[in-house]
Amino acid sequence: MKILYFAWLRSKIGVPTETVDLPAEVATAGDLVEWLKTRSPRHAEALANSKVVKVAVNQEHVPYDHPIAATDEVALFPPVTGG
Amino acid sequence: MKILYFAWLRSKIGVPTETVDLPAEVATAGDLVEWLKTRSPRHAEALANSKVVKVAVNQEHVPYDHPIAATDEVALFPPVTGG
Amino acid sequence: MAIRVQAEDFDVGAEYAAFTAGRTSVGGVAMFVGLVRDIAGGEAVSAMTLEHYPGMTERQLEAIEEEARRRWPLDDVLVIHRHGRLEPGDRIVMVATASAHRDAAFESCRFLMDWLKTKAPFWKLEATPDGERWVEAKDSDDAAAARWAE
Amino acid sequence: MAIRVQAEDFDVGAEYAAFTAGRTSVGGVAMFVGLVRDIAGGEAVSAMTLEHYPGMTERQLEAIEEEARRRWPLDDVLVIHRHGRLEPGDRIVMVATASAHRDAAFESCRFLMDWLKTKAPFWKLEATPDGERWVEAKDSDDAAAARWAE
Questions:
Q1: What is the pTM of this model?
Q2: Interface predicted TM-score of the whole assembly (ipTM), two decimals
Q3: Chains B and C touch (3+ CB pairs under 8 A)
Q4: Structurally, how many domains does chain A consist of?
């Protein structure tokens, strides 16, 4: 699965994108955020406060209970601040 | 006293402005509207429905109980429709 | 601050450029431009003539602007209103407000338009296939202005 | 209809002119232009960099526009949002809506700005004397967007 990071999530994790092999038990957006925390201390720190970690699946905002599949484009980012 | 008419009040009465000598008993904007009705059948018809006859004294909107003096600039017009 | 009542057309882009030139404290500019429609009340309109009360118009617009500045923190306000004969598609009015904050810009711009429609002494005469007719004041405009009563 | 996400600046006057050219059924155009302020949260801001999520940005803006057209009778909608490095006074965003009626134009323009601030994937990085900092989302923006919940 391809994962994109934006804004301070990107700079804290240190890469704009990474490709991961998901274990079978990671079924939702929320599962993914939890699982990503175990990848490195940088991931753990960046994703510590899930209130400010938003998830988009295939370019649509989704809640944490949204299912994810290996072919999805998943993006993690802080609350948006455009306009 | 100089009186100005605008929009359909002007076209119904037939003049944009007229100068009148007020009798002493005409003390308010409302008195003036009533008194003007007696000047001609055109005045009477134009001013028949006082709901749609607005009064400004010295270029400020005023209610009918507003006092008027001979030196005031008084204007009568329908509800405004600009913008 | 600028209040202008004029027969001449105005250039929205040039007005916007002058309004914001050199400003770095403004976060948002809200603008409204009112135009002559080719249809009104179901009838075709070929032209519109705007009559106004010179002197009182400027006075009322200045009072409305002062009220807007009292209510919202505004960097600047622009109101241009035309009079005379206009055709469909022609610009009638432009209001622009600048503020550090977008809510203040949006609200003051709408406030100015609502008050202008109910306080500024302008009257519209429409030319239709059945002849000329004076536009009647709308209850909805009074209701819109009443929203802002303090 | 036009949604544009671009690094280049835009010309408000030219956009307005193109937006209204040849239209005679539009009674009002509401516009909002968002600009970079030289101060934010009490600190001087020398520059701002807007990051976005290409693809999702356009998708979200199109969805927001569709929603606005569903809610109000609009003749046209324009949304331009820049990304990249900007300086104080620079334009960030422009929204314009055209309708026969001014309330529809005003409300839809504000709706678009409120939703854009809470849904469109843009992030602002401010350069201040203390270094760079990511702008935090404001509760007031969420509250503004919540106004429009149906």
A1: 0.94
A2: 0.93
A3: yes
A4: 1
